[in-house]
Write a structure and sequence with these properties.
Chain lengths: 274, 334
């Protein structure tokens, strides 16, 4: 049981590092953690299934299922429903952010990251940045498919791009709700259950699939204050050139409100997680 | 190194740390001092509060009561400075299992502030030093237990920390990998790092630690060098296996003459166990048996097990039957 120093001849060399680098800036730390999330996609590309297949199926299904009945023709309905499905799909996949974080917590990497001296929100911001890439991917796929099927944005692709940007901002803010929940809820399964419980009624009781004016008044009053409706109306408006400033500001204020409430809550939980 | 308060002699100075989970006081008033450049072993069974204590000292958990200075900085008010001098290797893989060894080290190097280029070269140096070059591009989840532990520790010393926390660094490792980890820990300390490690094994604490604290139910129930602790526990244990029942009886009589304690006898296994103070007494006992021409099939000298330490210190067992950890085991040919 002798100590064999030659076993690790280079160990001494790596240990005599006299100066410590300066702690990284918030942006650098966030981008590094974003890089980590990208690497995970590299190893498990199947996880992109939710942002590729999901939107395609949704779009095809709803267009051909409801098109004739609701709008008289699938072509007309497509113009109406595509912005809605866009919002619905992206909203749905925001919940994976929380699930990824929840998985991290159950492993040791969470503790490791928390003992490193970088700007703490970077761990979440980095992941959210990569999620924005995933949302963008989902949007691109859907719009491309829509175009093939005959979708033409009335306001050109510039309006469409701005609509997508607004959607990304909203999705980013929504993600903080899931990161917060992932720090509170114990298991991934429970988290998924709760997320679905919130998202399902929220996305269906909205203007995603239908015009709200045909709904009974009591329902209309609920649907009209649903944040998803607000986002769908703004995106749809931007796509077809009917958007008002008020619609845009409302979405921005709602997004900001969610971040103001849930980002600090998330960071508080992140710091004090047992 | 540069920023910590050098006039401070202690790497850790904790006073009356308490952590409660609900009504349960998981850590119940722990005070300890760890001199710089030493290895401190924190010994205790599962659930004793070892990990919770480490998490508090590593700024992951806020103590409910008490205070501590780590590398001269206050644990609660100056957590960011503390984080710059410490590193933690948790009980479970504390790297990202989905990433390769190289990617993990680059990730951490970038997060402590290395440039892109600097991070890559640091990661490569570390992989080389830890003999993991061949596995650099493999996902960590495909590593063996020993390799995993090595990448864990490599990840902890990306910026050679002043103080390294190791939570059960060798639990579940085979003896060869365990020895490798021990060698690494010794090399770290030779280079001036202070190491605070937890373990369930007395032998590990004995091999590595300058001072050992024994923890049970959140309380420090004994502290000292391994010698002091073993002295407080009492003798080591000599186990002798005989070839025949007749010899077993004779051997028992001879051994009984040498001790005040009762010699334990197991006729089915033809085994005698006697508490004996040191190796010299043990050697004398064996040589007397040999002079009497008794047939010994095997004998071994064991340290007191963790169970025995606990039995002595608390008057109860740990609830896990950790068998004696043998330090020498000699086979006699017929």
């Amino acid at each position: 049981m002798s100590t064999k120093q030659d076993d690790y001849p280079d160990l001494h060399k790596v240990l005599i590092l006299t100066q410590r680098p300066r702690r990284p800036g918030p942006l650098s730390a966030s981008l590094t953690l974003g890089w980590r999330a990208l690497l995970k996609i590299k190893y498990v590309p199947e996880q992109l299934f939710d942002v590729t297949a999901f939107p395609v199926i949704f779009l095809l299904m709803f267009t051909y299922l409801f098109g004739g009945a609701i709008a008289g023709s699938t072509g007309e309905y497509l113009d109406f429903v595509l912005p809605g499905i866009l919002v619905m799909s992206v909203t749905m996949i925001t919940m994976y952010t929380g699930m990824d974080l929840n998985k991290d917590i159950q492993k040791g990497i969470f503790d490791r990251l928390r003992t490193l001296p970088f700007w703490r929100p970077a761990a979440l911001v980095g992941a959210l940045l990569v999620d924005a890439v995933r949302y963008l991917l989902a949007s691109t796929i859907m719009i491309t498919l829509g175009y093939i099927l005959g979708f033409r944005p009335g306001n050109g692709f510039g309006g469409l791009a701005l609509g997508v940007l607004l959607l990304l901002i909203f999705a980013f803010s929504l993600s903080w709700i899931w990161t917060f929940l992932s720090l509170v809820v114990r298991t991934e399964k429970a988290l998924m259950g709760i997320s679905m419980l919130i998202l399902f009624p929220l996305t269906f009781l909205s203007s995603v699939l239908v015009d709200t004016s045909t709904m009974p008044e009591w329902l209309q009053s609920i649907v009209d204050v649903n944040p998803i409706t607000l986002v769908v109306d703004a995106v749809r408006g931007w796509v077809h050139g009917t958007v008002t400033n008020q619609e845009i500001y409302t979405v921005l204020i709602v997004s900001l409100g969610i971040i103001v409430v849930f980002a600090p809550l998330t960071m508080y939980k992140y710091r004090n997680k047992n | 190194m540069s920023k910590s308060n050098v006039s401070d002699d202690f790497a850790i100075e904790a006073v009356n740390l308490v952590k409660k989970f609900g009504d349960l006081r998981v850590v119940d008033g722990i005070s300890l001092k760890v001199p710089r450049g030493s290895i401190y072993g924190f010994l205790g069974p599962n659930g004793a509060g070892k990990t919770t204590t480490i998490k508090m000292l590593a700024t992951l958990l806020r103590p409910d009561e008490g205070s501590a200075r780590v590398m001269g900085f206050d644990l609660t008010n100056d957590a960011n400075h503390v984080r710059q001098c410490i590193s933690l290797t948790g009980q479970f893989a504390s790297v990202d299992e989905d990433l390769s060894g190289l990617e993990n080290l680059i990730l951490i190097a970038r997060l402590v502030g290395f440039s892109r280029k600097g991070a890559l070269s640091r990661a490569k140096d570390l992989l080389k030093a830890f003999d993991l070059e061949d596995a650099a591009k493999r996902q960590v989840k495909k590593y063996s237990g020993g390799m995993r532990r090595r990448i864990d520790i490599a990840a902890s010393i990306v910026t050679s920390p002043d103080l390294l926390f190791l939570d059960e660094p060798t639990t579940g490792l085979d003896p060869r990998s365990r020895n490798q980890v021990w060698d690494i820990i010794r090399a770290l300390v030779r280079n001036g790092t202070t190491v605070f490690l937890t373990t369930q094994y007395l032998e590990e604490a004995d091999q590595l630690a300058d001072r050992i604290g024994v923890i049970d139910h959140g309380k420090l129930i004994a502290e000292g060098t391994s010698k002091e602790l073993k002295a407080s526990v009492g003798a080591g244990r000599l186990t002798v296996h005989m070839n025949t029942v007749e010899d077993l009886a004779k051997a028992r009589r001879i051994l009984q003459e040498m001790t005040d304690d009762q010699v334990e006898i197991d006729e089915r296994l033809l085994r005698l166990v006697v508490h004996i103070a040191n190796h010299i007494d043990a050697a004398t006992a064996i040589s007397r048996l040999v002079t009497e021409n008794l047939q010994i099939s095997d004998f071994s000298m064991g340290q007191p097990s963790l169970d025995e330490v606990f039995l002595t210190l608390t008057g109860k067992t740990t609830g896990q039957s950790e068998s004696n950890e043998e330090v020498s085991n000699v086979d006699q040919a017929g």
